[in-house]
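Practice record 12: protein with protoporphyrin IX containing FE.
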Amino acid sequence: MDASALYALRDPLGIPAAPIIFLVLGVLTWALHIAAVHILLGASGLTLTGALNKNPHWRRLADAMIGTAKIALSVAIVLGVAPLLFVQVVYDPFWYTSNVLSAWWVIGFIVFLIIGSLALFIFYGLNHSMKSTAKTRCPGSLIAAIAFFLLVGFIMHVLSLQMLSPEKWMQWYAPNGIVDASGRTLHDYNFWRFGFFISLSVPVIGLWLIAYRRYLMGRDTEDAGYLAFIQSLSMKLIPVGGVISLALMAGWMFTLPANVAGFATGIWPASTAAILLLAVALPFALGKKLDQGFWGFVPFAFGAVALIVVAVMREMLRWTTLFGVHGYNALDYKLHMDWYSTLMFFLTFGVIGGGVLAYLLTVSWKAGQTKGMYTASPLVNRMGTIGISLLGIWILQYFVIGLWVAYGS
Ligand code: HEM
C-alpha cells in the first residue's frame, strides 16, 4: 500500500509529546498488561483444577487462586487501557482501520469481557471457601469465564494482526468488490502467535507460585505439606509451560508473512528465546536459596523482565512490518507539545501510582508476615494517609484546571 495513503489517515493535530515516549510506554504497559493476563489465566486454570479436585492442598490452592484471579482481572483491564491509548496515538491509521474492519467484535469485546467477569464473580460468590468444603458449586461459571477471557484476548489478537496488513484492507473491506460494512468478520489470526502469548500463562503462574510460597513461609505456623505441594507444582509448571511456549513461539516465527520472514532469524526472537529459557532455569539454579530472604521473589521479577523482552520483540516485528515493508515511520508523527498533560501523566504515574502502590504492597507484605491480627504501625498509617491525600489533591487539580481551561481562559 502507498505510504502516503497511510500518512493521510493520521490525526492532523499531531500528538502531544515525542512519539518515542508513546512507543516505549506502549511496550512497557503492554508487558504489564500481558503479565496480569497471564496471572489471571494461570490462576483461573489452577482454581478450576483445584475446584474439581478432592485433595485438600488443591482445594486450598483453588481458594487462594480465585482471590488472585479476581484481582488480576481488574489489573489486566486497567493495564489493558494503557497500551490501548498508546497504540491508538502512534499507530492510529492502522489501529482504527483494523477496529473498523471488525467493529462488531470490537463492541462485542466489552460485552464478552463483562460476561466473563460476571461469570468469574458468580463462581467466587458461590464458592466462598473451597478449602473447608469438598463440594464446588457451579464450576461451569468458571469455565465460561475462562472461555470469555480467551475470546476477549483473541479479539485483541486479531486487531493487532489486521493492523499489520494494510495491503489486505481493501480486500477485507470489499471482498470481490462488494462492500461489507457489517464489521462482523475477524479477518486474520495466527494460531501460533496467539497460542504463544496465552501459553506463557503456565510458566508465569509457576513463577508466581514460587513467590506465593515464599510469602507464606514468613508465617511460622504454615503447613509444611502445603508448602511442599506448591513447590513441586511450580517446579513442574515452569519447565513444561516454558517448553510449550517456546515451541509455539517457533511456530509463530515459521509462519510469519513472507515480507517479514527474515525477522525470525534476527536478534529479537533469539534474545526472547534466551531470556525465556533463563527465566525457566532460574528457580532451579537458585534451589534452596529460594527459601531465604527475598530470593523467592526473584524468579517472578526476572519473569517480568523476560515479558518486557517479549513485548519489545512484538513491537520490533510491528516496526519491521510497518516501517520496513510499508514505509510508515511512527517516529515522524507531527509534534504538538503539551507539557501540562505530559508532566501530569508522569507525576500521576510516579508519585500517585508509586505512593499508593508502596502503601498497598507494604500492608499486604506485613499482614502476610504477621501471626494473628496485623495492626499497622504509625509509619504505615502515615503512608496510607499520604496516598489518600495525594489522590484528593489530584482529583481537585483535575477539576480546577479543567474548569479553568474550559471557562476561565
Ligand atoms: C481479560 C482478558 C484479556 C486477555 C486474555 C488479553 C490478551 C491479550 C493478548 C494475548 C494480546 C496480544 C495479541 C497479539 O499481539 O497477538 C493482547 C493485546 C492487547 N490487549 Fe489484551 N487481553 C485481555 C483484556 C484486555 C482489555 C480489557 C484491554 C483494554 C481495556 C486490552 C487491551 C489490549 C491491547 C490494547 C492490546 C494490543 C496492544 C498493542 O497492539 O500494542 N486487553 N491482549
